[in-house]
Amino acid sequence: MKRSLRGRLIVLLVLLIAAACAAGTLMVGLFRQSATAQAGRAEAEIGRACDAIAGDYRFYSSGWSGPAVELINPDLRRDLNAVVQTALRGRSTIEGGIWQADAGSVAYAFPTYQGAGPKTDVPQAELSRIEAVNQAALVADRPFTSRYDAPSQVLLMTACPLAGPIANMTAWTMTRVATFGGSGYHLLMTGLAVLFGAVVAATALLTHLTMTWSRHVVTIETALQAHDIAELPTLPATGERELDRIVMALNDAGQRLAQARRRADQLARQVATGERLAAIGRVAAGVAHEIRNPIAAMRLKAENAIAGDSMAGDLERKNRALTMMLGQIERLDALVRRLLSMADCETLHRVAVALQPFLESCLAPHRELARSKSLVLESVACDEEASFDPDHMRRALDNLILNAVEAAPAGTAIVITARHDDDNLVISVRDQGAGPDPTIRDQLFEPFVTGRADGTGLGLSIVREVAAAHGGSARLGYGEPGTVFEIVMPWCPS
Fold first, then answer.
1. How many whole angstroms separate alpha carbon 258 and alpha carbon 256?
2. Pairing of strands 376-381, 413-421
3. Highest mean pLDDT: which of 327-331, 337-341, 451-455, 458-462?
4. Rg (Cα) of the chain, in Å, rounded?
C-alpha cells in the first residue's frame, strides 16, 4: 500500500490536536480537583476557627456568674468583638462573629481583610445565609456547615453553639474559595493559552510544510513528465534541504544518463556501421551466388545456340535457348528489384491508415492463389487509425502472406491481425504450417537465408528492414498450432 507524505503529515496534525485536547482536558480536571481539595481544606479551617471562637468565648465568660447582660450593651459587644478578633487573628481569608437568636449579630471581625481598613460590618449579601446556618446549629445543637457554589467561587459557612450565661448564642465563620479567577485559575488559563498557541503554530507549520512539499513535488513531476526520460531536465532548487538533495540526485542522474546516452548512441552508430558493412558483405556474397548460376546457364545456352547451323532443328534449339535466357533475365530482374526495395525502405512517407481496410487491401491480391490451394484468408483489426508508410508495409506483408500461403496445409486459414498493444502497433500473419527449419531460425531475417530451394532469401530481410525503418522489429513466434510472424513498431496515432 502506498503512503504519501501529505497523508502522514495530516495524521501527525490530527494526533497533535488530539494530544493537545487531552492535555487541556487533563489540566482542567486537575484544576477542578485542586479547587475541590482547597474547598475541603477551607471547610476544615473554618471549623477550627469556629472552635477557636467558642474556646475564647468560654474563657471570657468562665467567671461570669451574675445576671444576663443586655445584648445591646456597647461594652459587651466590644468585648465580644475582641473575642472574635483574637480567635480569627492569623487565619487568612476567614471572617466570623457571634450570633444570638433574638438579637442577631452581636459581634463580627475580619482581621485579615485586604481592604483599606478593618472591616467591621457583617456582609449584608450573606446575612440571610449567616442567619440560616446559625439557626441550623442551634436546632441541631452541634456544629453545622453550609456550602454555596457560585460560577467563580465556593462560599463556606460553619456555625457552632456557644455554652454560657447568654442563651441561644452561636459562633460562626465564613470563607470563600475561588474556583475560577484565582491565581490557580490564571495559571491554568496561561497554560491553556500556551498550549493553544503551540497547537496553532504547529498546525500552521505542518500545513505550510504539506502545501510547500506538495507544490514542489507537483513541479518536479510536471517537469519530468514534460521531457523524454532519456533527456531529464535540470530541476531548480526548492529551498527545502531534504528535497533539494533529491533534486540534486535527479539532476546528477540526468547528466549521467545524458552522457551514457551519448556514449550509447556513439556505440550504436559504430555497431550499426559494422553491421551494415557485414550485411553488405553478406549481400554481396549472396548476390554473387544468385547471379552466377543464371549467368552460367545463359552462357551455356548461348554457346550451344552459336555452335548450331541454320537448319530448322537448330532454329528451334536457338528459340528454346533464348526463351530460357529470358527467364533467367527475369530472375535477375526480380532479384535486383528486391534489392532495390530493401534500399528504398529507409525513406518513409507516413500517413494515417485505417487498419481494417488496409489489411483487406493486403489480402486481396492473394485470394485467388489461396483459393487454388484451398486456403482461407482472414483479417482482424482494431477500429483505429495508425501512422505508417502503407506502401512499404504492404510490401512487407506481401512477403509474409506469400510465405504463409507456401507453408500452410490445404484446408486451413491464414489470419492477419493488427492490434494496439500498450504503446506499440503489432501486425501479425499466422498460418498452421510447421514453420521454418530450426537450423536457420537464428538467421531467418538475414538476406539470402531461405529454407526453400526456389527462394531468394530476401523476403524476410525486407520485412525486417521495413520494421526497422518504422522504429520497430520483426520476430518469429508460434501459434496453437502453427507459426506467427509479427511486425512490432511504435504506435503513432494520427
1. 5
2. parallel
3. 458-462
4. 57
> Residue 435: left (phi > 0), alpha (psi -120 to 50), or beta?
left
What pTM value is reported for the model? Answer: 0.41
CA distances to 286, 407, 434, 451 from 439, in Å: 18, 17, 14, 9
Interatomic CA distance for residues 225 and 29, integer angstroms: 56
Which cell numbers in the block locate residue 360?
A: 483487406
Burial class of residue 159, CB neighbours in 10 A (0-12, 13-18, 19+): buried
Among 159-173, 271-285, 367-381, where is mean pLDDT lowest? 271-285
Instruction: Please state which CATH number belongs to domain 26-185.
Output: 3.30.450.20
Contacts of 404 (CB under 8 A, 6+ apart): 414, 429, 430, 431, 433, 483, 485
Q: CA separation (Å) from 295 to 180, 301, 328, 331, 448? A: 120, 10, 8, 11, 18
Give the percent of the chain with pLDDT over 70: 74
Under CATH, which number does the domain 346-490 receive? Answer: 3.30.565.10
Q: Is the dihedral of CA 272, 275, 281, 282 positive or negative?
A: negative
Domain coordinates in residue numbering, the chain? 26-185, 229-344, 346-490
Q: Which of 397, 402, 409, 292 is nearest to 355 (CA)?
A: 397
How confident is the model at residue 285, as a pLDDT? Answer: 57
pLDDT digits (tens, 9 = 90+) for 187-224: 767 777 887 788 888 888 878 777 877 777 777 777 77
Compute the CA torsion angle 314, 320, 326, 329 (nearest 10 deg).
Answer: -90
Place of cell 493486403: 362
